[in-house]
Structure formats: C-alpha cells, structure tokens
C-alpha cells in the first residue's frame, strides 16, 4: 500500500532569503512573490529559520508603542530593531524530510499553527516547501479510488483477505467496514491500514471476529510484561 509522502506534494521551486538579506528586501520579496513566509538559508542552502509577515510587523509597531512595548513584548521589541533576515526570523525552523508521510506533516502544521514547512535533506539543505494547501490535496481522492485501494491493497494484498466477504463503503472519505475476520487482532490491523489510505477521513469499523486471539501472548513471568505475540 502506497503512503503519500511530502516529496509527492511539496513545492520544489522555493522562494528564499539569506541570513544577511536586508529588512526592506525581505519585505519586498514577500510582497512581490505573494507569499506570507519563506525559509532563511545560509549561502550553501542550509535552513536556519523562517521569516514571515508577522515577523516584520513589530518593526512598525514599535514606533506606536514606544518604550512600554519594549518592556512588555521583548521578543517583538528585539525584532523591531532587526535589520536583516537573521534578526527577523523565527528559529530554529520546524522542518520535515521528503519521506515524511503527508499525514504527519499535516499534523505538525495544525499543532504548530503554521502555514508551511521547509523540507530538508539529511544534511539540512533545503529541497522544497510543503504548505497547508499542499497537504489538503490528499483529501481530494474520489470515494471510488479510495474503495479500490482498500479492497485490493489493504485486504487482498496486505492481509490476504478476500474483500468480497466484507461490506466496504466509502462516503465523502468516511470508510465503513462490515463483516467478519478470522482473528480479533486482525481488526485492529485492518483499521490502522485503512486509516493510512490516502483520502480517508475517518473509519467506522463494524467488523467482528471468529476467534479471540488476545490471550495468545507470551508474558515475562517475572514482571508480567508482554514480550511478543505468538502469531
């Protein structure tokens, strides 16, 4: 089963600025390219931070708030004095790698409340950017395509289960699976695999099992910790 990765959806032609880029050039780059933020890199392309519109705003706010602003908003006050991208940027940058699953990237974007993630290779060099808009594309798979992958990749190929013995429906990305599997443990495995299919929004499991294999586990006789499964 294919897992959609960041390298499948990321933008490779990335607008960047260098650490020494002056304030006005940073601002004009954001405006001219109609982006709200961009990576800050070293001369060799290593990502050291991200600069966004919000990083530039304190520069304007300082003149309005004066000394009180310096005392109550020290981070903003420091950025208000900034003259280069390095002084403006938010660091360290939150990054992902090309082989990061898109679902994981989407979770990071949501948890951090940010709009984009620089994509770096094993050396920390910039290779692309993945945005919220990029990851939303994973939910545009049709219900028919989702159903086909679940039937053939999850159950037939992944679990050696004939999908014809199950009742699988997909409506607006929500998958409902009814039917019986041989082992209780297989239900959890199936649910996890179905959730990993590109385009799946949620899974409603109504599967039952013929045999309860939960007791077939080897447990350490000393501390009672499960060591491995028998199957």
TrEMBL record:
UniProt domain CBS: residue ranges: 10-68, 89-146
Q: Return the Pfam families for the record.
A: BON (PF04972), CBS (PF00571)
**PROSITE patterns from the xrefs?**
BON (PS50914), CBS (PS51371)
Alphabetical keyword list = CBS domain
Q: Which InterPro entries match?
A: BON_dom, CBS_dom, CBS_dom_sf, Diverse_CBS-Domain, UCP036990_CBS_BON
Q: Spell out the SUPFAM superfamilies in the cross-references.
A: CBS-domain pair
* Listed name of the protein: CBS domain-containing protein
């Amino acid at each position: 089963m294919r897992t959609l990765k960041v390298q499948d959806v990321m933008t490779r032609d990335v607008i960047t600025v260098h650490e020494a880029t002056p304030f006005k050039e940073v601002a004009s780059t954001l405006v001219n390219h109609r982006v709200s933020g961009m990576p800050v890199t070293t001369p060799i392309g290593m990502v050291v931070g991200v600069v966004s519109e919000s990083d530039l705003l304190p520069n304007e706010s300082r003149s309005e708030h004066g000394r009180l602003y310096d005392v109550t908003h020290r981070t903003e006050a420091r950025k208000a004095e900034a003259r280069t991208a390095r002084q403006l940027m938010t660091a360290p940058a939150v990054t992902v790698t090309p082989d990061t699953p898109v679902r994981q990237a989407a979770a990071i974007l949501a948890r951090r409340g940010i709009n984009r993630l620089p994509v770096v290779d094993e050396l920390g060099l910039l290779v692309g950017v993945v945005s919220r808009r990029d990851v939303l594309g994973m939910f545009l798979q049709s219900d028919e395509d989702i159903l086909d992958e679940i039937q053939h990749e999850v159950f037939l190929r992944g679990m050696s289960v004939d999908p014809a013995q199950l009742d699988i429906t997909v409506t607006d990305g929500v998958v409902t699976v009814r039917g019986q599997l041989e082992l209780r443990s297989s239900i959890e495995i199936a649910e996890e695999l179905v959730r990993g299919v590109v385009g799946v929004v949620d899974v409603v499991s109504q599967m039952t099992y013929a045999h309860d294999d939960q007791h077939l586990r080897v447990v350490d006789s000393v501390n009672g910790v499960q060591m491995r499964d028998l199957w």
